[in-house]
Structures are given as C-alpha cells and as structure tokens.
Design a protein that fits this description.
The protein has 65 residues and is mostly helical. The protein contains two helices and no strands. The N and C termini lie far apart (71 Å).
Length: 65
C-alpha cells in the first residue's frame, strides 16, 4: 500500500468518526454564551476596566494618578 493510499484511508476513517462531536458542540455553545454575556456587560464594565488599566499604567510608569 502506498503512503497516499494509507493517508486517504486514514482520512476516510477520521471523517466517519463521530466521538468528539458532542465536545465541539458544547464548546461552541459555551463560547456563544460568553460572547453574549461579555457584549451585554460591556457598557457597565468598560469604564471600570479603563480606570483599572489607567491606574496600573500609572503605577508601572511611576507617575501618580
């Protein structure tokens, strides 16, 4: 059997394998929920995060805020 034929057979078996399908679906659903929550909280969290990063930046640069 040639290498190309072996790779083709391996790819066909991999395509038919359904064992990891549920994990991928759960991961995509979780990612969608995270994006929805973050986009919903952005207007309230953004100013606070901006202040935190500003304070951290001023501490790292050595200038008082």
């Amino acid at each position: 059997m040639t290498t190309i034929a072996a790779i083709y057979q391996w790819a066909r078996k991999l395509e038919a394998d359904q064992r990891g399908q549920d994990l991928i679906e759960y991961a995509l659903t979780a990612a969608l929920v995270v994006v929805a929550v973050v986009s919903g909280l952005a207007p309230w969290v953004a100013p606070t995060l901006s202040q935190v990063f500003s304070k951290v930046g001023s501490v790292l640069s050595g200038t008082p805020s």
